[in-house]
Structure formats: structure tokens, C-alpha cells
Amino acid sequence: MNKNTFLKLAHLFNANGFRLYMVGGTTRDYLLDKDVLDYDFVTDATPDEMKKFLPDANYHFARFGTVRVKDDEIKVDIATMRVEGEYLDYRHPSSVTYVKSLKEDYVRRDFTINAIYIDEKFNVIDYCNGLDDLEKKVLRFIGDPLE
């Protein structure tokens, strides 16, 4: 994993009054000491707030709370912490409500191992025992798997 990409962006977000965390497959692969090929971060900044300090980012999916930036050749997806409505088309949420809490954000994720957050000091934040599941090689849904 290119830690510099994360640290550089985390510093930029902090300088603008926001936080940035690693999450999902990025965190999972980092903790397993595997090559990180997919950079996923989450923040408390909304896409409109990010436009002020990331003017060259790709805002094509901003209505869903996702922004893409490029650091050298590394593509980074940054999602605003959120609660999502139903997935009527099985791909996109019918509504997005931004939140400021990782504890609210994690429940929208699919598996416990994808809901482990890492902050800019590389502290692990885990509300659903995803780290234990990762160590035990258990794949466990968050919420009702039939939904």
C-alpha cells in the first residue's frame, strides 16, 4: 500500500477541518499485508465541501456521496459518511443522507471485514468485530443477509 497517498490526503482533509479514514478492501488488504489495488476512503466532508480543496477531482457520482481523485497513477474513491435508502435498481441507493459518525456509516457496509476503519495515525476503529472475523477468516454480513 502506498501510505503516502493516504497520509497526503488525510493531511489535506485535516487542514480543511475534516477527517479521512481508510475503509473496505483497502483496510482489509492493508491489515492482511497484501498489495492494495483499490483505494477506498471515507470522510465527514460532503462532495460540495470537497470541491473547495479538491477542485480537480471527478464528481460524476457526487449525488451518491462519492468522489474520485488521482494521486500520481493511483485512483482513490472517497465516500462521504452516509446512511442510504433502498436499492430499488440493486445498484444505486434511492436516497443518501450524510452523517458525521463512523458508527452510523458502518451499518451500510456489506461485511464486517469491510467495516474496519483506519485513521491517519493508523489506529483501527472497529464497531462490529470485523478484525476478529478477519483473523478467524469468517465472512459475516452486517444486518440481515436476506435484505
Structure overview:
The model has no long low-confidence stretch (mean pLDDT 92). The chain is of the alpha+beta class. It is globular. A hairpin with a 5-residue loop joins strand 7 (116-118) and strand 8 (124-126). It has helices at 3-15, 24-31, 47-50, 102-105, 130-136, and strands spanning 20-22, 39-43, 66-71, 74-80, 82-84, 96-98, 116-118, 124-126. The protein is built from five helices and eight strands, in the order H-E-H-E-H-E-E-E-E-H-E-E-H. 24% of the residues lie in helices and 22% in strands. The strands form three sheets. The protein has a four-stranded mixed sheet with strand order 1-2-4-3. A two-stranded antiparallel ribbon has the order 5-6.
Question: Keyphrases for this structure?
Answer:
147 residues, alpha+beta, 4-stranded mixed beta sheet, 8 strands, 22% strand
Describe this structure in a few short sentences.
This protein has 147 residues and is an alpha+beta fold. It is 24% helix and 22% strand.
Helicity level, as a percent range? 10-25%
Structural class: alpha+beta
Distance between the termini: 33 Å
Q: How many individual helices?
A: 5
**Radius of gyration, rounded?**
15 Å
Mean pLDDT: 92
Widest sheet, order of strands: 1-2-4-3
Q: What general outline do the C-alpha atoms trace?
A: globular
Number of strands: 8
How large a portion of the residues is in β-strands, by DSSP E? 15-25%
Order of helices and strands: HEHEHEEEEHEEH
Low-confidence stretches: none
Report the sheet with the most strands, covering strand number, pairing sense and barrel closure. 4 strands, mixed
